[in-house]
Amino acid sequence: VSLSYRDAARGVNLSTRVRYTSGFPAASAGFVGDVEAAALVDLTAGYAIPNTKATLQLSVTNLFGNLAQPFDPFYQSFVGVPEMGRFTMVRVKYDLF
Q1: In the 8-state DSSP scheme, what is residue 72?
Q2: For the chain, first and last CA: distance in Å?
């Protein structure tokens, strides 16, 4: 589920997304086990820099930690892969055309 807001006149955009994956048993090659349920909230915000074609963007995944497992800031998307915590990225996007 996602919700977005855009104000082109002010150069602002915001969006939030909620992702949910139920737990499931996994068996792939040598990786066998159970993957726990995960509920994550992501946030993206952008600001168009006036008089340029550049946009400053902030993206945060797993903003509040794994809501399906209270007080657990990490989640694992599959057996054998590293656990992921919050990921934050700031970037400048420039439109050439």
Answers
A1: B
A2: 31
